[in-house]
Amino acid sequence: MDTPKIFESEYRFCLILWEHEPVTAAELVKLCQAQLGWKRTTTYTVIKRLGERGVVQNKDGVVTALVSREAAQVSEIDELMEKKFQGSLPAFLAAFARRQDLSEEEAEEIRRIIEK
Protein backbone atom coordinates (compact mmCIF):
# COMPACT_ATOMS: atom_id res chain seq x y z
CA MET A 1 0.00 0.00 0.00
CA ASP A 2 1.34 3.44 -0.92
CA THR A 3 1.75 5.98 1.84
CA PRO A 4 -0.67 8.88 1.38
CA LYS A 5 0.93 12.24 0.55
CA ILE A 6 1.49 14.44 3.60
CA PHE A 7 2.10 18.09 2.77
CA GLU A 8 4.52 20.29 4.75
CA SER A 9 2.03 21.93 7.14
CA GLU A 10 0.32 18.57 7.62
CA TYR A 11 3.69 17.01 8.41
CA ARG A 12 4.29 19.58 11.15
CA PHE A 13 0.87 18.62 12.54
CA CYS A 14 1.81 14.93 12.33
CA LEU A 15 5.02 15.57 14.27
CA ILE A 16 2.87 16.82 17.14
CA LEU A 17 0.48 13.90 16.81
CA TRP A 18 3.27 11.29 16.71
CA GLU A 19 4.77 12.76 19.86
CA HIS A 20 1.50 12.77 21.84
CA GLU A 21 -0.71 10.02 20.41
CA PRO A 22 -3.21 8.82 21.23
CA VAL A 23 -4.48 12.32 21.93
CA THR A 24 -7.89 13.93 22.04
CA ALA A 25 -8.84 16.31 19.26
CA ALA A 26 -9.37 19.02 21.88
CA GLU A 27 -5.82 18.54 23.19
CA LEU A 28 -4.49 18.62 19.60
CA VAL A 29 -6.22 21.96 19.13
CA LYS A 30 -4.34 23.33 22.15
CA LEU A 31 -1.02 21.85 21.02
CA CYS A 32 -1.40 23.15 17.46
CA GLN A 33 -2.36 26.59 18.71
CA ALA A 34 0.70 26.72 20.97
CA GLN A 35 3.22 25.19 18.56
CA LEU A 36 1.90 26.20 15.13
CA GLY A 37 -0.25 29.23 15.87
CA TRP A 38 -3.30 27.49 14.35
CA LYS A 39 -6.92 28.29 15.11
CA ARG A 40 -9.26 25.55 16.27
CA THR A 41 -10.95 25.32 12.88
CA THR A 42 -7.60 24.83 11.11
CA THR A 43 -6.70 21.88 13.33
CA TYR A 44 -10.09 20.23 12.82
CA THR A 45 -9.84 20.78 9.05
CA VAL A 46 -6.42 19.11 8.98
CA ILE A 47 -7.67 16.19 11.09
CA LYS A 48 -10.59 15.75 8.68
CA ARG A 49 -8.42 16.03 5.56
CA LEU A 50 -5.80 13.59 6.85
CA GLY A 51 -8.55 11.24 7.97
CA GLU A 52 -10.04 11.21 4.47
CA ARG A 53 -6.63 10.32 3.04
CA GLY A 54 -6.01 7.54 5.58
CA VAL A 55 -3.19 9.27 7.45
CA VAL A 56 -4.98 9.63 10.79
CA GLN A 57 -8.01 8.20 12.52
CA ASN A 58 -10.37 10.25 14.68
CA LYS A 59 -12.47 7.81 16.66
CA ASP A 60 -14.68 9.13 19.44
CA GLY A 61 -12.61 12.32 19.59
CA VAL A 62 -9.29 10.48 20.01
CA VAL A 63 -6.83 10.97 17.17
CA THR A 64 -4.20 8.38 16.26
CA ALA A 65 -1.84 8.08 13.32
CA LEU A 66 -2.41 5.40 10.70
CA VAL A 67 0.90 6.31 9.02
CA SER A 68 4.11 6.15 11.05
CA ARG A 69 6.75 8.84 11.03
CA GLU A 70 9.16 6.38 9.40
CA ALA A 71 6.70 5.53 6.60
CA ALA A 72 6.11 9.24 5.93
CA GLN A 73 9.86 9.92 5.80
CA VAL A 74 10.51 7.00 3.44
CA SER A 75 7.70 8.18 1.16
CA GLU A 76 9.17 11.69 1.02
CA ILE A 77 12.66 10.37 0.25
CA ASP A 78 11.24 8.12 -2.49
CA GLU A 79 9.42 11.08 -4.03
CA LEU A 80 12.52 13.27 -3.83
CA MET A 81 14.70 10.60 -5.42
CA GLU A 82 12.21 10.04 -8.23
CA LYS A 83 11.66 13.74 -8.96
CA LYS A 84 15.23 15.01 -8.65
CA PHE A 85 17.43 11.96 -9.30
CA GLN A 86 15.28 9.87 -11.69
CA GLY A 87 15.03 7.19 -9.01
CA SER A 88 18.81 6.68 -8.82
CA LEU A 89 20.03 5.95 -5.30
CA PRO A 90 23.71 6.32 -6.32
CA ALA A 91 23.00 9.79 -7.79
CA PHE A 92 21.12 10.78 -4.62
CA LEU A 93 23.90 9.54 -2.33
CA ALA A 94 26.60 11.21 -4.45
CA ALA A 95 24.77 14.55 -4.30
CA PHE A 96 24.23 14.18 -0.56
CA ALA A 97 27.84 13.24 0.13
CA ARG A 98 29.18 16.18 -1.90
CA ARG A 99 27.19 18.65 0.21
CA GLN A 100 27.93 17.19 3.64
CA ASP A 101 31.03 17.06 5.76
CA LEU A 102 30.75 13.44 6.87
CA SER A 103 32.82 12.26 9.79
CA GLU A 104 34.64 8.97 9.40
CA GLU A 105 32.11 7.40 11.81
CA GLU A 106 29.17 8.64 9.68
CA ALA A 107 30.80 7.39 6.49
CA GLU A 108 31.37 3.99 8.11
CA GLU A 109 27.77 3.85 9.29
CA ILE A 110 26.56 4.58 5.75
CA ARG A 111 28.84 1.80 4.44
CA ARG A 112 27.33 -0.66 6.95
CA ILE A 113 23.78 0.36 5.96
CA ILE A 114 24.54 -0.08 2.26
CA GLU A 115 26.13 -3.50 2.83
CA LYS A 116 22.99 -4.81 4.56
List keywords for this structure.
3 strands; mainly alpha; three-stranded antiparallel sheet; 116 residues; 9% strand; 6 helices
Compact summary:
The chain has 116 residues and is mainly alpha-helical. The protein has helices spanning 8-20, 25-36, 40-52, 69-85, 89-99, 104-115, and strands at residues 23-24, 56-59, 62-65.
Protein described:
There is one protein chain. The protein has 116 residues and is mainly α. The protein has 6 helices and 3 strands; from the N terminus they run αβααββααα. A 3-stranded antiparallel beta sheet has the order 1-3-2. A hairpin with a 2-residue loop joins strand 2 and strand 3 (62-65). Helix 2 (25-36) packs across helix 3. It is elongated, with a radius of gyration of 18 Å.
Topology readout:
Layout: H1 8-20, E1 23-24, H2 25-36, H3 40-52, E2 56-59, E3 62-65, H4 69-85, H5 89-99, H6 104-115
Antiparallel strand pairs: 1-3, 2-3
Helix pairs in contact: 1-2, 2-3
Q: What is the structural class?
A: mainly alpha
Determine the number of helices (DSSP H or I, runs of at least 4 residues): 6
Strand content: 5-15%
One letter per element, helices H and strands E, the order comes to HEHHEEHHH
The average pLDDT value, as a whole number, equals 92
Give a short account of the largest sheet: 3 strands, antiparallel
Helix content: 55-70%
- End-to-end span in angstroms? 24 Å
- List low-confidence stretches: none
> Rg to the nearest angstrom?
18 Å
Oligomer: single chain
Strand order of the largest sheet: 1-3-2
Identify the overall geometry. elongated
